[in-house]
Amino acid sequence: MNRRRWLALAVRMIRLHRDPYFQGAGTQLAFYLVMSIVPLTVLLVQMCALFAITPELIGQLAEDYLSPQAVTAVKSAIRHVQVSGSSGAFSIATVVFTLWGASKVQYCIVGICNYARSGRVRIKGFVLERMWAVLNVVLLLGMILASLVALVYGKVILDMFGLFMDRILHLPFEFNDIWYLIRWPIAIAVYVIVISYIYFASPVDKPRFRQVLPGSVVAAVAMMVASFGYSVYVTTFANFDAVYGSLASFVALLFWFYLLGTIFVGGILFNMAWEDTKHIR
User: How many CA atoms lie within 13 A of 87 on its CB side?
Assistant: First the structure.
């Protein structure tokens, strides 16, 4: 892509961002992420129990692969689940209400994606679009669960593969060396896949998958960079405790959610600008 298109792309994104709706969209997402984090964790813990993945193991995996802010959010939600006793058997009514609460952030995303593609927040009405948001939450939780199962049991599978390579083929195979090389490319790939699915599935007027891929890649990389940069800032420069006292961890988490929400919306705008400037050579 030439310099002329990059310039046109930047100008188009700036113009799109001037829309008051998009300027407040990151704040909306941050608020609904806070509202959804506990019910999402409740559902995830219940699903993980089917594969003997404990809440403690989920917390350990979070420490290994997520930013400090994400670890704080996950562990806080897990503590709430354990204290409230939500790790027991669910009734159908409880599952329905928990899914409804967990779908708040996805319902907000549906509205943002609808507005980006059609200029209208609601196209098929509250009930149908909220049910679509619930379905998307179930599918996203399934994707997260699959990733956790792969992380937990992937080492066992690779160890068996290494044993086969060593005993049968007489070839060296070191899991730790291989995993060290591929863990971050895999993490970026998971980010891209999840964000691409959300961009593709959320709007009522479905785009083509290739139309959402550029913004997904940009948003995934930007989220990882922003999370790392914010972690460095919080641990090195910021002193939230002095200003916010006991609310310091919540404020730090909320601002991180705001960063993620703003980047997520930026990925949507990037896809729109990419399509609008594709004729420029």
Answer: 16
Model confidence over 187-244: pLDDT tens digits?
Answer: 778 788 888 988 998 888 888 888 899 999 999 889 888 888 887 777 776 676 777 7
Residues 6+ apart with CB under 8 A from 26: 258, 261, 262, 264, 265
Contacts of 197 (CB under 8 A, 6+ apart): 139, 140, 143
Q: How far apart are CA 48 and CA 38, in angstroms?
A: 15
DSSP at 208: P
Q: How many CB atoms lie within 10 A of CB 97?
A: 13
Q: What is the DSSP letter of 202?
A: S
Q: 123-170 pLDDT, tens per residue?
A: 888 888 888 888 888 888 887 777 777 666 666 666 666 666 666 655
CA distance 110 to 125: 11
| Residue 269: burial class (beta carbons within 10 Å; 0-12, 13-18, 19+) | buried
Token duo for residue 120:
């209208």
Reference 261, options 16, 12, 23, 1; nearest CA is 23
Structure-block tokens of residue 269: 């705008």
Kindly report the average pLDDT of the chain as a whole number: 79
CA angle 36, 258, 12 (to 5 degrees): 120
Quick one: which of 75, 47, 50, 49 has its CA closest to 61? 75
* Cα(173)–Cα(193) distance, integer angstroms: 29
